[in-house]
# Entry
Amino acid sequence: MSRYRVALIGTGGIVTSHLEAIAALSDRLELVAAVDQNAARVESVCAQAGIPRAYTDAETMLAAEHPDLVHILTPPATHLPLTLAALDAGAWVWCEKPLCRSLAEFDQIAAAEARTRCYVSTVFQWRFGSAVEHLRRLAGEQLLGRPLVAVCQTLWYRDAAYYAVPWRGRFATETGGPTATLGIHLMDLLLWLWGEWEEVQATVATLDRLIQVEDVSMALVRFESGALGSIVNSALSPRQESYLRLDYQRATAEVKTLYRYANADWRFTALPGAEGDALAAAWQAIPCDRIGSHTAQLTLLLDSMDRNERPLVSGAEARRIIEFIASLYKSAFTRQPVRRGAITPGDPFYASMNGAPYDD
Ligand SMILES: NC(=O)c1ccc[n+]([C@@H]2O[C@H](COP(=O)([O-])OP(=O)(O)OC[C@H]3O[C@@H](n4cnc5c(N)ncnc54)[C@H](O)[C@@H]3O)[C@@H](O)[C@H]2O)c1
# Structure
């Protein structure tokens, strides 16, 4: 097992989760450098976390440090150029969500992966908790029956000060509102658990913030299996909650939390009867209690590096949520249902989430 040289690009709010994950895996990772355009910020983070070298420019860092792995934690509009630069420097990339601002950008990243033979994975830490792993196992063993009805609600509160940060509030810089940046975690989880989606119908609105992007979206999704899901993504909800409810033929699995879940945040209700009792017992037999965290995902990413194989949440597994969000916005802006696969090069929603060219 190799010990990889890792570097961070971006040392803002989310850096703490990455530092925590790297510290937990220090036998497998050597944190060699951090980069931020804000010199005071990167120097202070390096001093506090004991990172040996600080840079204000990613290209300079990549040329000097030759990292094996780069974590990108900058605003969404910078993800594409920084990802391409890291790949071209021979590094794997672990990039914060949303990976990029459009399907066109995603496809550029995919082409760069093929060219450089390095991989790009998106941070979706919610996929990696023990409760979700266990649920997937039970579903995979056909114990739950077919998925039928889903409720997926990200009801968060983001005030005017949150949107006063210059990169927030515009499609070109933030990619979208709560759909693209907040609810993306729970929607990604739903789509990953329930297999391919087929069609989405959506509405978005900007009700109470002075921003270009939406502050609420609502959507109905139909899956290939025939299952239906209802989605709400809000930045306007004073009592904040993330709620995912999954009704299968034989049981309901629900999680109610805010940003992280442990096993205790899940509730599992099987149909009454002997079969249901056995199912409830199977649910209780979760082998461990692991939070869906950056550390959990990074552990598996390093395993993929050891084996030099495509990591989880990359390739088609990362494109799915970008396509779903582009389709949700297209449905909302055109007031038409949108089917998976319908947005192709030449479609305005292939190049941007609001169907208008990004002004950068
Ligand atoms: N996985 C999660 O749960 C989670 C939570 C919060 C944020 N995020 C994501 O993390 C990313 C960053 O969010 P944040 O809240 O930390 O933002 P932030 O504004 O707090 O920090 C961004 C930092 O990037 C720096 N920066 C900008 N452009 C740069 C460039 N080209 N080169 C180097 N540095 C640059 C800025 O100076 C700033 O310090 C976003 O994509 C966001 O969606 C993920």
Summary: The chain has a mean pLDDT of 98. The chain has two domains: 4-122, 126-291.
